[in-house]
Specification:
Blueprint: H1 2-35, H2 37-44, H3 47-53
Length: about 55
Amino acid sequence: MAAITMDLDEKISILQTTITSTQNWLGQGLEMIIQADPVIWKISSTPLWRVIRD
């Protein structure tokens, strides 16, 4: 029983680490999107992007 509990704690720990790193990655990505906003507006206003979106 103790071995199962240890394994579960380990899995929870790995999951928490994954969530934290994912949040950091998303946060960095969001900052990059905000900084690159004018570029995104130029890209999104091109006909090609409209074709991809539709």
